[in-house]
Structures are given as C-alpha cells and as structure tokens.
Amino acid sequence: MTRLLERLTPCGPVVDPKAAERAHEAITRRVGEAAPLVEAAWPALAPIFAASPYLTGLARRDGKRLPAILDGDPEARLGQILAAAEAVAAEPDFEAARRLMRELKADLHLLTALCDLGGVWDLDAVTAALTRFADATLHASLAQAVRLEVARGALTRVGEGPDGPAPGLFCVAMGKHGAFELNYSSDIDFSIFYAPEALPVAEGVEPQGVAVRIANHLGRLLAERTVDGYVFRIDLRLRPDPSSTPPAMPVDAALDYYESVGQNWERAAHIKARIAAGDRARGEVFLAELQPFIWRKNLDFAAIADIHSIKRQIHAYKVDDRLTAKGADLKLGRGGIREIEFFVQTQQLILGGRHPGLRSPRTLDALAALSDAGHVTPEDRDYLTRAYRDLRALEHRAQMIADDQTHKLPESDADRRKVAALWGHGALRSFDAVVGQVLKGVNRRYGALFKGEEALSSRFGSLVFTGVEDDPETLATLKRMGFSHPERVAATIRGWHHGHIAATRTERGRELFTRLAPRLLDAANATGAPDDAFNRFGDFFAGLSSGVQIQSLFLAQPRLFELIVEVMAFAPRLASTLARRPTALDALLDPAFFGPIEMPRDAPWDPADFEGAMDAARRLFRDQSFRIGVRVISGTAGARDAGAAFADLADLIVGGLAPAALAEVERLGGAFPGQVAVVALGKAGSREMTAKSDLDLMTLYAADDPAAMSAIKGWAADSFYARFTQRLTSALSAPTGEGTLYEVDLKLRPSGTKGPVAVSFAAFEDYYEREAETWELQALTRARVIWASSPAFQTRAEAAIAVALRRARDPGKTAVDVLEMRQLMEDERPGKGDWDLKLAPGGLVDIEFAAQFLQLAHAAGGGPLAQNTGEALAALARAGLGDAAALAALEAAWRLEQDLSQLLKVALEDGHHPDTEPKAFRALLARAGGVREFRSLKTKLAKAKVEARAAFEAVVKA
After folding, report:
1. Are 858 and 869 in contact (CB under 8 A)?
2. pLDDT, tens digit, 9 for 90 and up, residues 355-383
C-alpha cells in the first residue's frame, strides 16, 4: 500500500496564486493537527485548489476528509467508500441514509478528482470508480425505497440475495453508466422494469403504483438536493417512449415496444445496457430477450441506411471550418465525444449481429475490436483513442471546477485558463490550439464515415433527433431555419420517430421518415413561413392511416413534396382539406395532374340516391378544388384556366345534383309535367370563379299546362318548382359528414328576396321587359344556363336571356344608371386598400361595369354578348365598340387582377394582407403578376388600377 500523497504529481501551473493561498489557509486551519499532510502534498494540491472552488469546498467542509484521502492508499480508500455505500441499504433511518450517501459522494468526488488530476489513475480507473459508486448507491437506494413501501403496507417484505430488495424489479443501466464510463459530474441513465406477478405486493395492491412510487423514491434518495448536496442526477428517459409511459414499466410492455417500434438509436443505447441493481436474474433474462432487437444478423439496405442516419444527421463540416476551443461542446459539438461514440456504435450495429466479438459496451474496447477485424484503420483507431481520452479528460476538468453537469469549455478566457491548468497547460493559446486540432481531427474522420451517402443534416447545421433530449446544435439549426419554437419542433419529430402516429408505426415508415425529416424542415424553411408549414404538415401527417406509400412518393418526387409543403405554408384552406381528408392527395398522383384541367363529363353518382349524391358531390368538390388550388399555388394554372376550372366544377356539381333534387321532389310529391332550368349568374355565370366564390343562381320553369298538378301531392307548378329550388339549394349548401360545397345566393332573380324562389318563364320574360332595372340587366349579361331538364328548354331559356339583353335602350340613361350604381357601391362598400381587387377604384367592379355597359348599349344593334368579362372586352374591341386604348387598359387590368385574385383566394384567409406574408409567398404573387419582384408588382398593380379607373370613366359617359 502506498499513500496517495506520495503518488500525487502537480497537474499544471497555479492559475490563480491568490486563490491557492486562500485555500491553503482555510484548509490548513480546518484540518488542524493533520496540517503536515496537507503541507507535504501542497505542491500537487495548489494547482487544483487554485482552479476549482468546488474541490476546495469539499476539502474545507470536513476537516477529516482530505487528510484521510491523502494518508491512505487510494484503491483501499475507494473500497471503503463503496462498502459504506452498500451498507446504507440496511440503514433503518431514511433521512440518515440520504445524508450518508451524500457524504460518501463528497468523499468519492474528492478522492477521484485528486487521483485523476494527480496522475494516479487513468481514465478507465476514474470512470470505473464513479460507476461502481453509482451502482452501490443505486442498490442502497432501491433497498431504502422498498423499505418505505413495506412500511406503507404496499409490499410484504424486503427481498434478499440475488432477487434484490424488490423481487421482480430491476434497474437497467444505460449509456455511460452501463459501460462503466461515467464522467465526473454525470447523471446516471437507467430504466426500471418489473414483472407484476413477481413483486411481493400486499393483497389488493396494484403493482404498477408500487413500482412508480419506488421510482419516485429513488429520485428523492439520489437526486434531490439537500443541505448535504445530492448523490446523482438521475435520468429515466431512456425507457420506451418516455413521454407517454410511467417511470417504471412492466417487462412485457417494454419487450412489445422494442419489438414493434424500437428505433436504431435505442438499439445503440442498449449496446451498453447491463443490470445495475435489483432482481439480477430476471434482469439478465430481459436483456437476453432484447439481444435479437439489438444485434440483427440480417439487415437489408434500408435498415443499414437507417443506422447510417444516426451519423448522417450530424452536419459534417469542411476541413477548413473553424473548430475552436472557445465554448466548444466536448460531448455534442463537432469533433466531440458523441462523434467518436457514433463512429463506433453505427458500425457495431451493422456488423455486431454476425460478429459477437464487436459487441463490447465500452467505446475504446469496441474501437479496438473494429480495428482488429479490419473495419477501422490502425491510424484512425490510434487517433480516435487518443482523442477520446483527451476529450473525456477535458470534460472531467470542466466539470470539476464547479461540479456543473457541463460538457462545454468556457467562453471566457479566464475560466478556460482554469481548465487548461488542470490539463497541464500554462499558455491559453497553445491549449486552444491543441483542443482545436483534436476537434478537427475527430470531425474529419467522422465525416469520412459512410462518405458519399445522402446527407440527413441541413445546410443550416445538424438535425439530430435520436435520443430523448434536445440536441443543442439541432435547436440552434432549427432557430436558424426560422422556427419560433425549436424545442416543440424537435419534440414533435421525436414523437413521430417513436411511432406516435400511424405513418411511422412500422419500421419501414420510420426508416423513410428518417430521410424525409430533413427535407421537410428545409422545405418549410424555403417557404418563409416554417412554423405554419410544419404545423399544417403535422396535421396532415398525423391523419395518414399509413405512411410508407406517401413518404416513398415524397422522397421519389422532391418537387412534388416541396409543392405540398408550399401549400401547407400558403394555403390554410387547402392544408385543412389535406389534414381532414388525406385522400385528397390522390389527385396529385394522377400522371395528368399538371396537364389541362378537365372535369369528368358526367357526375359520378346516382341521382336516385339524394343523400348519397350530396356526399359524393362533396367528395368530388374537395378533390377537384384541391387540385385546382394546388395548380394555382404552383403557378401552372393561370386565372383564365383556374376560373374556368372552378366554373366547370360548379357546372358538374349542379348538373349532377339538379336531377337528384328533381327526383327527390318527384318522389315526395309525384311527377309534374313541365320543364326547369338552372341559370348561373355572377362569377359562376361568367366562368370567373375563385376558390371562395359562392353560387348566384336562378331557376326558371315552365309548366306544360298552367293548371297541371303533381301526381301525388297535387302541388301546382309554383309550389313544385319552389320545392325543387329549395332541395337544390340545400343539396348545394347544407353541411354533411363529407363537408360543405357552396354558399348559394338567389337574390339576383326577378324581384329579389321578395319574389318566389323559382321564377316562371312568363314572369321572367315579363319582368325583364317591363320592370328590370339597369343593374339587373348588368347582372343578366353574365347569365348562363348550366342545367336544364331538356335540351329544348335550355335553348329556350338562353334565347329568352338574349332577348332581354338585346332590347333597345337609351345608352345615355344606361350610362347614368351604371354610374349611379357604381357610386352607390363606393358609398356603401368602399374599397379596403391597395389589395382590394374588387371594390377599389380601378378594381374588378369598374372593369366589369364598363364591359356590361358597352354590351347593354350595343346589344340591340347586334353588338357582342359574352358572359366572361375578358372575352366581352376582347369582342367589343374587335367590333370597334369603344375606345381601343381604354378597352386595352381594361382588359390588361382585368387579367392582372384576375391572376392575383385567384392566388389570393386560394391562399389567404379574408383580411390577410399580402404585404405581411412571407417573402416566398410574395414572390409567388409577383410571378403570378408577371414581374420578378413584389415591389414591382405593387407598382404595376397601382398603375393598372389608375389606368382601369380612367378607362372606366372614359367608356361609361353620361
């Protein structure tokens, strides 16, 4: 036996002589008669106490602690501490047990630090001492926890022997705890499992409640801070799915989890797993059952690629990137300990299934085994071994200064000098240079592992979602990508990796998501609205019943995926459609998706099934309107195509529901001898519909015999066709389990809301000949028959509309009426700013009024009639029926405003201002407006509106 003071050597220079002197005085005074021991060891102690307030405090707190350590053999002293810790298991007083363990922890920490810094113990001896003490105190704490439950009456006895204090319950040490690699201020990672049938619970007591309370007791015993400090911080989050499971889990539930949704990072974590306390026999059986999960003999390409992803999520920096000591994260940062561990563990997971010799839980032993087997070069093995030892030593010294659970070197030069001194460096510059070279060397070798494979990081930095805690670099990456709540994003992605949603519940689904996650985050960033894009994608992703096909599609067609994420960012209504009905995505799988937008010729439902037809119509509307909207967002459908497509969709739906409504009325009231037509007005009539357009409709009917009655109920024509109109309106507007269709407006019919909902043919002709005001005739210029009970009646209705429009009228009076109506609208519904494309001066209403006026003024003389505003303006220009420059200005403004209106209606909710939207959306608007920059678009739009207003005033003259 050799006393420690005889083996200690100075670790480095005295970084703060004044601090050393203060420590010397205080410790000498505290140890009393043992001062000569301190004096003899002071050359080796001075550098330590000058740099570490924590270690100084341990030496000062108990006058016997330092002398006992210095005067004894360190290995023997460690054995005494471990034996005393084990003996705490039998301590009858709970509070005394807590105090004793904390005092022993102080003894251990001072002993370990002196042996480490004084060159007495190497890294393996240091980490083994810390780990053995963790095991001893965990065993003692488990015994104390069980004793509390026995006193409570929940357990019948404290177990003895190999069954442990709680037969059936055991603690699995994970991570560095499991591998005997604990660092100086490490927490201890372990999971608690139990066999409910084996726990000696009292009659009527639920085993789960007991097991959970035992876990909580362990927290009080080990981690709770008291006046005496703490023993170990504990981390129970390496158990299966920690966000949704209790802190102690039944064995069967844990095995089910690992077999069904266990992830590769959990396989890597279990490389180091061992039984640290409790029922060791049951624990060993549990670990044996996990071996096929950890070590797979057969791995397909996808599984290997997913293991590689553990490494590829970390951004590999170029050789010339600056990796400096200042603030370096020695554990998680670039070139840090984690990169060496991942370098080893990823290869172990791939090769260890067939080669048991590669399964060592200890990092350096496994690295040596990989080298011996020819998988790592001797040069890389030797470099990484030295680097690992250096980084662990630096990590310990950073923690010894204040017992902080830190893995970072200090930012400040003064604090970093303390770490340098404890590592033997007197010059900060040379220390920083050495550390920087170590980090660069590790990162370079790490970056070369699986080189050439698909990156799973981002140009913004690392994207690591393995494990149960947030990776600091990943949070920084997410922040750089524009996410407001990086922690929330990271937690969501980890939850998806855990199989919390159906899309990732299978192993293949999780493998695909590993590749998709960074693309999702990059695509969300590219929209300029990453929060909205990610949150809405999350709603959609969570609604999928299976994720393999969709994720495979997104990975195979990255542009399509980026388009979907754009939709999520810019089009809340479309995003909501996808979230509620993920099957809407099927439309995008059609090879003809980006071809001409064509509707089916016939409605795909049986008109005899009224309710079935309503549901089918809503499904058709949802899928087709989503398709049109995505085409608008993507810029592959202009305003003319989109307006026509929305109108064609409305025509198809009305054309399919009108026969169903008629059949339903006939079923209830009996057949009626007559004809009926549905006339679209407004934007539906002019085929200028947008994503939010309602339907302005009018129904015209004619009885074959004025005295006719329906066959069953005896309804007259007005009653019969009023019921038809009501049924049709309900079919078009009422919500069902499949959603909604349109708001329906019947106010443009003769006499408006005061007249009957269905208009007889005679009343229509009479009204437009005798009573109709100019504004009603303006509306009639856009009238279009979209369904009729017979082709002959459709022709008759179209002719009646043409007759009404082509009657002779005074152009001057018509102009006055148009101007008065426009002024009334401006007074009652003024425009709401630059982006009001409808009501503002020079907006769509001005342009429509100008076209409608010219058509009414010239229709009697054979002038052109066209429901569509753009077509009408072009036809009037060709016929020379208006100032050519004014018509050109009106048509140009109409096209611009239509292009913008289509995109705005698809993307934004009412009241949202384009100026406040993300830059990427403003770029979409600019593209829709035919310019390169949003600023240019605003200038172009303002100019077009001024010119359109001037043209309106030039065309419509009283």
Report:
1. no
2. 999 999 999 999 999 999 999 999 999 99
